[in-house]
Each structure stands twice: as C-alpha cells, then as structure tokens.
Write a structure and sequence with these properties.
The protein is of the alpha/beta class. The chain has 20 helices and 23 strands. Helices cover 38% and strands 19% of the residues. The structure holds D-xylulose. The site of D-xylulose (XUL) has 15 residues, from helix 13.
C-alpha cells in the first residue's frame, strides 16, 4: 500500500489536481479541467458568466461540482490509486460565495450515484455565485465601513478594508436586493467550503485563511466578529459554518465518492482553503521576508508576515496563513486579463507576444499604460479603461512591453506597505513561463527572480497541507520535499536599468494619480 495525497484547486478558469506520492517524494499525477472548453454548456467565458454590467461577475456553482466529478474521472483514468489516498484538501478562488437552501444538508447526507449535479441543483438558494472579479457592491462597502468606524477600523478588525469582491459586501448586496432569496438562504459557503461539503457529505467549516477574505472574521482571534456580522446582514451567524484552523480534518468522503471512485472510507478530508493561502504553501514562502508573485487570471503579490500589520492605504490584505500566522497580499484584477487583451488586439499568440516584448527596449523610452481593461482592485478603478501614456497604439512591440512593465511597476509600488523589499522574488502561475515577463520583474525590482518547477502552487499547496494535517510533519521538511526552492534564478536584475525603471515608476505614479 502506498501513501498518496490529493490537492484540488477550483480557480477562476479551471479545476486542477495534483497527486503526491509521499513515499517516493514526488508528484505522480497532474490533471486539469477547463471550464469554458470542457463544460461549454454553462455558457461561461473563461469561467465567468457574461453580464451587461462589467462590474457584475458571477459563475455557476454547479459547474464547479461538475468539474470536480470530471477531474476525479480523469485521475481515475490516469491510474491514480484512489484507495491509497490518505488525505485530500483543496483550494478555492477566494471570496466567491454559494447560497444554499434548507435542503442542502439533507441532500449532502444522501448524495448518490451518477446524479450528484442533479441532486445538488435543488439546493441552491441563488443560482449563481458572485466571484472575486465582481465590483458591483461599492455602496455596501461604504455602509459596512461606516458601521465599523471607517476604513482603517474595518481593516484593523477584519484584516482588510471593505472590498467589493469580499464576501461580506456581496452578502449585504444580496440581502438588500433579494430579501426573499436571502430569507431562503440557510447556509452560505465559500467556493472552498462548498466543494469540501460535497466531498464530505456534510456542511463543511470555513478555514482561517479563506475566512479572512470575507470582511466578517476577526483577524486577531479567528472567530466571526459580531460587529462585522451585524454591519453586514441580519441573522448572518446562523447561516455561516464555524471557522477552523486550516489543518483541521473535517471528515471522511461521503459514500458516493467511495462507491464510484474507490476512495478509501478512511481518506481524511482536510479543510479546504483559499487559493492564496494555498499558494503561500505551494511556493514554500512560510518564512517572513520573501515574496512571491502569482501571474494568473489575477496577479497577486504576497508573502508571509512576521507581525500582523494592515495596510494604512486600505489597498492590501492580511489573510490567515495555513501555518497559523499571517500573510500579506495585494491583488490586481487586470493580470492575465490585460496581457491577453493586448495580445489579442495585435492578433498575437504568446510566442509572438514574447517576441514583441523582446524587440522593444527596456523602459520603453518612457512609454507605458494604465491597463485597466476590467475595473481594477489596486488601485481602485470602477470605470474600466486602458490609458496609453507616451505610447503609440500602432507600435505593437511597445504596447506588449508596456502592459508587462506597467504591471510590474504597479506591483512594486503598491506592495510597499508590506515592508518587504525582498532580496529575491519567486514567481508562479501560468505566465511565469514567459522569460520576458520574468526578466522585467527582475529589472523593475532589481532582485533575482526564481521560478518554481510546479506552477500550480494552489493545488500543490493544498496537497502539502493534506500531508501536514495527517502526518504532523514540519512545514520546512514538506516544502523541501515537494516544493523545493529553485537553486538557479530564472532572471537576474540588470543594474544598469535601475535608474531607468525608477524614472518610469515616478512617471507611472504621476499618471496613476491623474487618472484616479
Ligand atoms: C485575492 C483575489 C484573487 C482570487 C482569485 O484577494 O481576489 O486572487 O483569490 O484567484
């Protein structure tokens, strides 16, 4: 009998899985399901339902369940020995919420056969789930902050100022706009706890890491905050599960998963967490001082925190770390979204995009852009727009460079509050394979950039968390075994470009304040 550990990741655009073979100390299987391509009948674009208002971003929760079923099928077809999986955990795109009616709990307890999705369809009190890209709840954010004594007080209490995409303002908006449906909502889950509930066949708790992306939890004591609940919606406590440490074993697989996929009835299900806390583990950044950039649908900049400290400007977040401490993070919505939009405008593929960046000069002769193709989170921009500064729209190479350089500069500028000016940076996420992007990050930050072999740090982090929860192994040892720090940098900074990028950063800062 071997020992295998499964990590799942339900992100914006896909569901992915990583299986660790513990005895051999390696990843033995990776699979992925793309929502738009593999599940076209849900009608999403890149995992998001189209809507006439660019601020409204929802996804169908049953699509995530169908993706879960599909990925388990793929793992089985790939020969994963389900009976030898000792534990599993998962990762969900943070902040997204699922609204469930009174039949949820009883349906979970008797999920059966081929029709998991059909059975769950009757349990939704709201057919769609607002996700992290939504920015339609500014009024509710203002109301919550006012009730909690302002932006700073909200951040001090919950780890973040009130944000449109955070679950609290989304719940408030739902309750105000659809009071009857809110009344019929008996449980509110996060993407992570929703999928964990389905696997465990019972309502799952929310972990400390994902719970801190809701504006509802007291970040210091890791329990729901009465004041925040009251500022958000009536009778909210009864609709929320408890908050638990990220390493909590929450249950065993429901019979359907044992019967249909051959999971052992003894497989431990470890609380699922958000993609960012999971990525912290998957990039091995458990010790304060280092920082990582995840280049995904959103771009995030994050690191472990030595002492709880919130962002005075209210742009950044403090989340719970799966190791028990804290992590800091800032999130840019126009990550790969903006890179893809520029690439598509010039009808390029990624190879052509990288070539174009290469053809242009570092610093772009002072040309850059504010790439707010979607409403932006940092800085807060509710009316989208792409603004070119000293930049000729016809110049393909300069535009491709401009989006990447501007994003790298924005990350550097807005991460200053974290107080980490790292000696090295780690990169993860799909776009981390691009040599030009990685070089620009090194030059803008004037530090070496390292790239992990495994770019799906959220699924890897979930699998490592599953091992840790069951074996009690030290984090350092698990990181060394499954997410070792790369020895060779992927890019070194070019010192001769330091002044050029410092000038560009100043110009960028001026332009940003002009357009805000
Ligand atoms: C972080 C954030 C995104 C989501 C989706 O606060 O909103 O990174 O977690 O990945």
């Amino acid at each position: 009998m071997g020992s295998y550990y499964l990590g799942l990741d339900c992100s914006t655009q896909s569901m992915s899985a990583i299986v660790l073979d513990f005895e051999r100390g390696k990843i033995c299987c990776e699979e992925s399901v793309n929502f738009e391509k593999d599940l076209p009948h849900y009608g999403t674009r890149s995992g998001v339902l189209p809507h006439s208002d660019p601020r409204v971003k929802h996804a169908p929760p049953l699509m995530w369940v169908e993706a879960l079923v599909m990925i388990l099928d793929r793992l089985r077809d790939a020969g994963v020995p389900f009976a030898e999986i000792k534990a599993l955990s998962g990762s969900g795109q943070q902040h997204g919420s699922v609204y469930l009616n009174k039949s949820f709990e009883s349906t979970l307890s008797r999920l059966s056969g081929e029709t998991v999705i059909g059975q769950l369809s009757g349990t939704l009190a709201r057919k769609t789930s607002p996700i992290w890209m939504d920015s339609s709840t500014s009024a509710e954010c203002a109301e919550i902050e006012e009730a909690l004594g302002g932006k700073r007080a909200t951040a001090a209490l919950t780890g973040s100022a009130a944000f449109e995409r955070f679950t609290g303002s989304q719940i408030r908006a739902f309750c105000k706009r659809h009071p009857v449906a809110y009344e019929n909502t008996v449980y509110i889950a996060l993407v992570s706890s929703f999928l964990a509930s389905i696997l465990a066949g019972k309502v799952a708790p929310i972990d400390f890491g994902d719970g801190s992306g809701m504006n509802l939890m007291d970040i210091t004591s890791a329990v729901w905050s009465d004041a925040a609940l009251e500022a958000t919606a009536p009778n909210l406590l009864s609709r929320l599960p408890s908050v638990v440490p990220s390493g909590t074993i929450i249950g065993l697989p429901a019979p359907v998963w044992v019967e249909r996929w051959g999971f052992s009835a003894e497989t431990r299900i470890v609380a699922w967490s958000g993609d960012n806390p999971n990525s912290l583990i998957g990039t091995g950044l458990i010790n304060p001082g280092d920082a990582a950039i995840s280049l995904g649908t959103s771009d995030t900049y994050f690191g472990a925190m030595s002492k709880l400290r919130t962002d005075p400007a209210g742009e950044g977040h403090v989340f719970g770390s799966p190791t028990g401490g804290f992590m800091s993070l800032i999130c840019f919505k126009n990550g790969s979204l903006a890179r893809e939009a520029v690439r598509d405008q010039y009808s390029l593929d990624w190879v052509g995009f990288a070539k174009a960046v290469h053809q242009s000069e570092p610093g772009n002769k002072g040309a850059f852009m504010l790439p707010w193709i979607e409403p932006e989170i940092v800085p807060k921009v509710l009316t989208p727009g792409l603004h070119r500064i000293n930049l000729d729209e016809q110049d393909v190479a300069a535009n491709c460079r401009a989006v990447v350089e501007s994003q790298a500069i924005a990350m550097r500028r807005h991460s200053a509050w974290m107080g980490i000016r790292p000696e090295r940076l780690y990169v993860t996420g799909g776009a981390a394979v691009d040599e030009e992007i990685v070089q620009i990050i090194a030059d803008v930050n004037q530090c070496p950039v390292y790239r992990h072999d495994v770019l799906n740090s959220a699924a890897l982090g979930a699998a490592i968390r599953a091992v840790q929860a069951v074996t009690g192994s030290e984090w350092d040892k698990l990181i060394a075994a499954f997410a070792p720090y790369p020895l060779q940098p992927a890019a070194m900074p070019r010192a001769e470009l330091a002044v050029r990028y410092a000038d560009l950063e100043r110009a960028y800062a001026r332009a940003e304040s002009e357009y805000l």
